[in-house]
Amino acid sequence: DAKTTQPPSMDCAEGRAANLPCNHSTISGNEYVYWYRQIHSQGPQYIIHGLKNNETNEMASLIITEDRKSSTLILPHATLRDTAVYYCIVRRPNTGTASKLTFGTGTRLQVTL
Amino acid sequence: DTEVTQTPKHLVMGMTNKKSLKCEQHMGHRAMYWYKQKAKKPPELMFVYSYEKLSINESVPSRFSPECPNSSLLNLHLHALQPEDSALYLCASSQSTSGGYEQFFGPGTRLTVL
User: Fold this and answer.
1) What is the Cα–Cα distance from B48 to B34, expressed in whole angstroms?
2) Chain A partners within 8 Å of B106 (Cβ)
3) How would you class A32 by CB atoms within 10 Å of its CB: exposed for 0-12, middle for 13-18, buried for 19 or more?
4) What is the largest CA-CA distance in chain B?
């Protein structure tokens, strides 16, 4: 699976948009970009994933660059409950063996008043 | 029901004990996973089950023994653990092991080995 690079930490004011970048310059054409987050002492929570097109759901938006070498997770109106470690993961599709989810070090997002 | 449950929430065991962690899901998922997470580190994959068969073992020591008795249940049997095995053990499930499906995680079992 392609390696990802994320900033170790970011701050965001409550109510503002949080934009979390992820670099995945070695991504292959058929690999997905996944985002998970982990609130302290809880299990990771799925946020969103995409292949080529931008995606939006009730939690966030995922913007993938045209060359697919980087992406940005956008939380449109961050709240204190969004304080967590956010993981960007590149994951290959099933090619006969199970597709693994390999977590990197993630970005620790701190939302403040 | 979109929940993965894990029991117990906390477990303290000695190095000579035998204990088991339990994971359950009722989403009809056919893939289940065990992860280990040390403090301030990301989760690391241990085992993957697909259709109740072991699909991936990430070179985990034999003192950890997984079992998938049916499609809804996943156990992790622990024997002769070491203090360095103390960690948060996370279970997850997904519709299949294909890369297009998200994994749903349980809250974890926090294990302390004395």
Assistant:
1) 7
2) 43
3) buried
4) 41
DSSP chain A: ----B--SEEEEETTSPEEEEEE-TT--TT-EEEEEEE-TTS--EEEEEESSS-EE-SS-EEEE-TTSSEEEEEETT--GGG-EEEEEEEEPPPSSSPPP------EEEEEE-
Give per-residue pLDDT as tens, A12-59.
999 999 999 999 999 988 888 999 999 988 999 999 999 998 999 999
Distance from CA of B2 to the nearest CA of A (A): 12
Q: Which residues contact A99 (CB under 8 A, 6 or more apart)?
A: A91, A92, A93, B97, B98, B99
Give the pLDDT confidence score for residue A96 in this predicted structure.
55
| The two three-digit tokens of residue A22, written as one number | 């992820």
Which tens digits make up the pLDDT trace of A61-78? 999 999 999 999 999 999
Arithmetic mean of pLDDT, B70-99:
93
Are B45 and A100 inside 8 Å of each other by CB? Answer: yes
* CA closest to B4 among chain A residues: A43
Which chain B positions have a beta carbon within 8 Å of A98's beta carbon?
31, 48, 50, 55-56, 97
Interval B2-38: pLDDT, tens: 699 999 999 999 999 999 999 999 999 999 999 999 9
Nearest CA in chain B to A90: B99
